[in-house]
């Protein structure tokens, strides 16, 4: 039975009975429904300024998830490769600033973790329509791999896969729902991970069909 203090689920009970690798912390039900609604409204405002797009991959295809960013830098991919850029690729405008509600959610999630001072400067926002997925990959375009990456899920349930340091290592599947968060910090920071499946129609947010992930990084 989960121990709860207010809306904060204690870390000791946050692992749902399956062995997550060291440095990977699952925080179920950590973001209240009201805060999820605020986060979604902030995403909609960001998408007005920086519309979702499907970046080109190195292989010449397009990402299955649509992407945009907020903060000082945004993750991007095109024929020049994977990197962070400080201006939007088409308009050359800066990315929208990180909304205060994003910082508030991250501070709540990170509280009590081994990385309480984490201050993200970039948020990559992925939008998965039903059928979209994300192949196993490492996040390795940030400067400091000692900084964690914090991911918040909004909308439909998904299977989040976490593997090892090699792409072929076996993975564990973690079911992530709206308002739940995954922290990947050292020594789990560089583990391969991906999204295997979205479960359409399972999310609690009435005006969101699909899943949005907010992935917070210290990029620069
Ligand atoms: Co990633």
Structural write-up:
The protein is mostly beta strands and 220 residues long. The chain has a single domain (5-217), classed as Sandwich (Jelly Rolls). The protein is 13% helix and 32% strand. A hairpin with a 2-residue loop joins strand 5 (74-78) and strand 6 (81-85). The longest helix has 17 residues, at 33-49. Mean pLDDT is 92; it is low at 1-17. It binds cobalt (II) ion (CO). Cobalt (II) ion binds next to loops.
Quick structural gist:
The chain is mostly beta strands. It is 13% helix and 32% strand. The structure holds cobalt (II) ion.
What small-molecule ligands were found?
cobalt (II) ion
Can you tell me the number of structural domains?
A: 1
Please state the second-level CATH architecture: Sandwich
**Mean of pLDDT:** 92
Using the alpha-carbon principal axes, give the shape.
globular
Q: How is the CATH topology named?
A: Jelly Rolls
Spatial arrangement of strands, main beta sheet = 3-12-9-14-7-4
Rg computed from alpha carbons, rounded to a whole number of angstroms: 16 Å
CATH superfamily: Alpha-ketoglutarate-dependent dioxygenase AlkB-like
- Per CATH, the class reads Mainly Beta
List the helices and strands and how they pair.
Layout: E1 4-5, E2 8-9, E3 24-27, H1 33-49, E4 66-71, E5 74-78, E6 81-85, H2 100-110, E7 122-128, E8 134-137, E9 149-155, E10 157-162, E11 172-176, E12 181-184, E13 193-199, E14 211-217
Antiparallel strand pairs: 1-2, 3-12, 4-7, 5-6, 7-14, 8-13, 9-12, 9-14, 10-11, 10-13
The structure holds cobalt (II) ion (CO).
Residues 137, 139, 193 line the site of cobalt (II) ion (CO).
């Amino acid at each position: 039975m989960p121990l709860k203090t207010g809306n904060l689920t204690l870390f000791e009970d946050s692992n749902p009975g399956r062995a997550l690798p060291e440095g990977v912390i699952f925080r179920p039900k950590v973001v209240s429904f009201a805060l999820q609604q605020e986060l979604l409204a902030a995403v909609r405002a960001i998408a007005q300024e920086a519309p979702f797009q499907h970046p080109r991959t190195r292989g010449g295809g397009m990402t299955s998830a649509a992407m945009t960013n907020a903060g000082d830098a945004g993750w991007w991919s095109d024929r020049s490769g994977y990197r962070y850029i400080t201006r939007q690729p088409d308009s050359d405008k800066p990315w929208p600033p990180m909304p205060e509600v994003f910082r508030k959610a991250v501070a709540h999630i990170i509280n009590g973790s081994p990385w309480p001072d984490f201050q993200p400067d970039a948020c990559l926002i992925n939008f998965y329509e039903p059928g979209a997925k994300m192949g196993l990959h490492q996040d390795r375009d940030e400067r400091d791999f000692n900084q964690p990456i914090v991911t918040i899920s909004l909308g439909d349930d998904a299977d989040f896969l976490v593997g090892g340091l090699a792409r072929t290592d076996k993975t564990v599947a973690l079911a992530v729902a709206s308002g739940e968060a995954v922290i990947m910090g050292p020594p789990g920071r560089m583990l391969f991970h991906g999204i295997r499946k979205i479960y359409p129609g399972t999310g609690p947010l009435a005006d969101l069909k699909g899943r949005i992930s907010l992935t917070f990084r210290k990029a620069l």
